[in-house]
Amino acid sequence: RSTSVTMPTLPRSHKILNLSMPAFGGVLGVAGLGLAWREATPMFAAPEWVGESLLSGAGLLFAVLCFVYTLKIVRSPQLALEEIRDNNRINFFAAIPLCVMILSAGILPYSTSIAALGWLTATITQLILVLIILPKSFRLSLEDYQPSPSLLLPTAGLLIGPIIGAPIGYINFSWMIFTLGVALWLWVTFLVLR
């Protein structure tokens, strides 16, 4: 006689609480693929609607993740605080402004002003996060420090941002954050590899 084992299902609120910051990496992947497809359209006669659909889907995914993560903060702020206190997971908070930067590049052909507002907001947020996250990592003792490639995330926006900022018109600001990004990237790479 066979017996079937049924797995208990978590209430929906528990599923919301399981969402963590690395989920925003999915937005980066889909949006990046959409931008790559947009660039491939004139070169390879690829259908334009595929890239635009990917970018729209990335924007929708970003909105849904922001909404769900906000619910997580409201329903269980201690879980969000645990992510902030975790030396590796805190780095993934930098994925949010990075998502906004890449989505701003997707909006650029349709509205320069909206793209500029999104990019500028994301870049300033990225700079603030770098000032919060990286010093925390630098203060760790060698015993507490666990090198992780996620430490590169806060500086990634400083390197990717200028690619989007220059066409919008922020050339000098783009050069400034690129220079800062390169210096920090080299230092963080040293920290990860030591």
Describe the structure concisely for a colleague.
The chain is an all-alpha fold and 194 residues long. It is built from eight helices and no strands.
Compressed to H and E, one letter per element, the order equals HHHHHHHH
Give the overall silhouette.
Answer: globular
How is the main sheet built? none
Structural class: mainly alpha
Tell me the total number of β-strands: 0
Q: Round the mean pLDDT to the nearest integer and report it.
A: 85
Distance between the amino and carboxyl termini: 58 Å
Classify the helix fraction into a percent range.
over 70%
Can you walk me through this structure?
- With 194 residues, this protein is mainly α.
- Helix content is 73%, strand content 0%.
- It has eight helices and no strands.
- The longest helix has 28 residues, at 48-75.
- The radius of gyration is 19 Å and the shape is globular.
- Mean pLDDT is 85; it is low at 1-10.
SSE diagram, text form:
Blueprint: H1 12-17, H2 25-44, H3 48-75, H4 77-85, H5 95-107, H6 112-138, H7 153-168, H8 171-193
Helix pairs in contact: 2-3, 2-5, 3-4, 5-6, 5-7, 6-7, 7-8
Descriptive labels:
mainly alpha, disordered N terminus, 194 residues, 8 helices, 73% helix
